[in-house]
Amino acid sequence: MSKLTIVADIVANEDSAEFVKQELLKLIEITRGEEGCLQYDLHQDNDNPAHFLFFENWVSRELWQDHMGGQHLADYLEATEGKVASFVVSEMSVIG
């Protein structure tokens, strides 16, 4: 199986953008150290500071699922409850 690419599209409530950003930044170092993580980059929209995107590459879906079950993500979800307007995760594979 080829590596798994994840695109996580997060839009914070406008009044919570900076708080959500700080919580997202906390995830980077921990996640980059996880088994199977090849790339974990956070982006912020130049025109909309409440819009964030994680671009991730993982060795396998199983190792990404281990990441998704981690305590650091549970802590993020708890801290940002009610502060995020949308959170869409897309699992993608290289096709060319």
TrEMBL record:
PROSITE patterns linked: ABM
Source species of the chain: Enterovibrio norvegicus
Coiled coil: none
Name of the molecule in the record: Antibiotic biosynthesis monooxygenase
Keyword Oxidoreductase: yes
Keyword terms of this UniProt record: Monooxygenase, Oxidoreductase
One annotated GO molecular function: monooxygenase activity
Domain ABM per the UniProt entry, residue ranges: 3-92
Keyword Ribonucleoprotein attached: no
